[in-house]
Amino acid sequence: MNYKEFLIIFFIKYIKLKEDYKNMLTIDMDKKINKYIDQLINEKYDLNNDSFITELKMRIWDRANALAQERDEDFNEEFIKEIIDNIGIVEEFLKEPATPDYKWQLNKIVDEDLCAKCGTCSIVCPNNLIDFTNQPELKEQCLREGNGMCQEVCPRTNSGAYQISIRENFFEENYYGNGNIKGQSGGVVTTFLQKLIEDNKIDGAIVVGDDHWKPLSLIVTGYEGLADARKSKYTISSLSAIREAGEMGLKRVAVVALPCQVAGLRKIQHYQYLAKHSPERGKNGKPAELPEIKYVLGLFCTGKFDYKDLSRVLENKNIDIKDVIKFNVDGPNFIVSTKDKDTKIKLSDMSLSPGCLMCRDFDAQLADISFGEKGSPEGNTTIIVRTETGRDIANYIDLQEEVKVKNIQKMREFKEKRFKKEVARREKENQYNSYYYNGDYGGIGQAQNGFNFVRFRSNPAGFYDADVVIKVAEITKKYGGKVKLTNRGEFEIHEIEPKYSEPLLLELRKIGLINGGEGPLVRSTLACPGNQHCMLGLIDTIDLAEKCEDKYAEKPFTYKFKIAVSGCPNKCVRPQVTDFGINGVKYPITIEEKCTGCGRCQDVCKVDALEIRGDIAITNPDICIGCGKCFNACPNDAKDVLYEGYSLYIGGKGGREMVQGSQMFVESEEELFETLEAVQEIYSKNGKKPQKERLAGTMKRMGVATFLRQVEEFKNQS
Fold first, then answer.
1. DSSP-assigned beta bridge partners for residue 612
2. Do 259 and 361 meet the contact criterion of CB atoms below 8 Å apart?
């Protein structure tokens, strides 16, 4: 062991000992403060109830912590004493909230009336700190100040629609039909749920029941429970039963959800946020045990009402909510059906949940199957199948075609118009507008200055027609932005106001640019000019880059995955520090009867791989890099190809921790793509999810030799 290695090991051990000591001090401090609280309580009160004392101590501790944070001071015993001195009547103290306003990242969403009131945040909290009745609220201070799972699954921080859609490969098939169970849209939905349970595809279903139209989140495992959930409620509902289902031990569930809830559920499905939060990050260290969400059944929705507000509106129309048989929406009207009559109420005269004004999704476009009455003949339900998962169960009822899609489109346009009107109103009144709706598109990011940037995938090898470049400049100028070319040859448009991100993106798509290039996807293929434009190029990099883009553009992946194509060993695009680098190579052998030993090949060789022995140029294969310069330099055509093809670099990475990829040689383009497919397969199988582990990290953890052996085994099997 040299001195440098000794220092590194010593430093690592020192840090570990220091952390252990810090933790020990923290534990000791906690014990000391607990003892101090006991002392002060005993001096001031005569209490005998142990549970009462425990609750009091917890409340004192929370209030003292909150006071320290409020004053931005280190927590100490003085804060404990101050709180206890001001308790007054204990019973009243316990009724008060621990703090008047807990710090929470989602406060901005909730307080600014952007909250979808979907309830997703409440089911993922590892410490069960979020209460959801009419809206989400922190019950006590979160140690992460809400900057965790709740923030990540919220459909109003970022819809995640683009990432979700490309993973599900959404399509749209429109049908209508009727189930074997009487009911509203829920009649058909109930038929599907019943069949899923009977076929043992799920252990239960999460539905919305009601108590006189007041929604209740229910777990259903048989027909009896399904019968209680056949009505459309149009009021704010919770997803709490999903968490309860997991705690009960249910493994697979179907969830019936509104569009906003569908968005949140999809984020849980595809990003597995629960997995990346280690126990120590939570107060109690117990991630929520959620079941696998196997089927997402979406409902058409124009908006939700608060139950109390809805009851009040009906009272003004002399309607008792208990007498209502059915609610429905017909264009601008809300239809209330009782035994005696149907009453029309203008939606404009009713108070929707404010967050619903920021929703542009009418027919739950991220669901496996969506259900609603719009577009189908009276007495039937429209069924929109969107995924292969949905298609597998669509035949549970007899499906009829000829859905009036234009009627559905009208409602989509209605919500879109309402949404844009609300965005414009908020802009005009300087109210906070969430970034979330820009998440419907890939490539839109948020900069630190509050502006957005929009990224487009690079054209193969970074070549653009002059007319395209001019058009990019014109559109960018129109929206007040700045153009940046990235090191992958991508256009990035910066300094864009959030409200202009969508129109700018759509205009640039019309001229052939593809938005994207972010998230856990295959990035733009980086390529040098190649043999079409460079004297040194050995391969057609543009053609190869085009083939990579055709196969892998915006392909979902374990984490970001980069491909680079270099035309020669000059490696201008740094393939050696790319997840999958491709480098054209051409190795020589001398034709002795033609060689005169003139030395021209030796003169151009940059790595001194050639020497003249007598009248013959000899190549040292251990030094030669396969650049091919000697072929062009030889005046006597005395160089023949020993072998040529592609030198591959697997598992390279730039950035903070530079890693050079493991090298391998393939002769043909066919084998190149076979290797790429194998690398992606083994990486997908072994890469940690969702901890954002690059290919280099996976190979290091598995062992490079093990990883490459599995790649070869996969190629042989294929």
1. 617
2. yes
Which residues lie across from 254 on neighbouring strands? Answer: 205, 295
Q: Which domain holds residue 440?
A: 436-509
CA atoms within 13 A on the CB side of 110: 21
The closest of 662, 638, 642, 509 to 580, measured between CA atoms, is 662
CB burial of 628-666 (b: ≥16 within 10 Å; e: otherwise) equals bbbbebbeeebbeeeebbbbbbbbbbeeeeebebbeeeb
How many domains are contained in the chain? 5
Q: Is residue 435 within 8 Å of 446, Cβ to Cβ?
A: yes
Give CA separation, 702 vs 200, 245, 613, 682, 705, in Å: 37, 36, 46, 11, 8
pLDDT in tens, 227-274: 555 555 455 677 888 988 888 899 999 999 999 999 999 988 876 544
Q: What is the pLDDT of residues 371-395, one digit of tens each?
A: 998 999 988 999 999 999 999 999 9
From the number of C-beta atoms within 10 Å of its C-beta (0-12, 13-18, 19+), residue 592 rates as exposed
Is residue 213 located within the same domain as residue 338? no
Does pTM top 0.90 for this prediction?
no
Whether the pLDDT of residue 3 is over 80: the answer is no
Same domain, yes or no: 340 and 357: no
Q: How far is CA 60 from the centre of its chain?
A: 39
> 124: buried, middle or exposed (CB in 10 Å: 19+, 13-18, 0-12)?
buried
Of the candidates 343, 318, 132, 331, the residue with the CA atom closest to the CA atom of residue 241? 132
For residue 445, the cross-strand partners are 453
For residue 583, which of 558, 564, 599, 600 has the smallest C-alpha distance?
Answer: 564
**374 and 310 within one domain:** no
What CATH code is carried by the domain that includes residue 455? 3.90.480.10
Q: Verify that 172 and 292 share a domain, yes or no.
A: yes
Tens of pLDDT along 645-695? 999 999 999 988 899 999 999 999 999 999 999 999 999 999 876 667 899
**Other residues' Cβ atoms within 10 Å of the Cβ of residue 280:** 8
Q: Are residues 619 and 574 in the same domain?
A: yes
Choose the final residue of a domain: 95, 114, 144.
95
Cα separations in angstroms, 617 against 50, 568, 623, 629:
93, 22, 14, 14
Write down the mean pLDDT value for the chain. 83
User: What's the pLDDT at 22?
Assistant: 41
CA distances to 459, 486, 494 from 477, rounded to whole Å, are 22, 19, 11
Is residue 539 domain-shared with residue 606, that is, in the same domain? yes
Residue 550 buriedness (CB in 10 A; 0-12 / 13-18 / 19+): exposed
Look at residue 630 and tell me if it is in a domain.
yes
In a domain, 9, yes or no: no
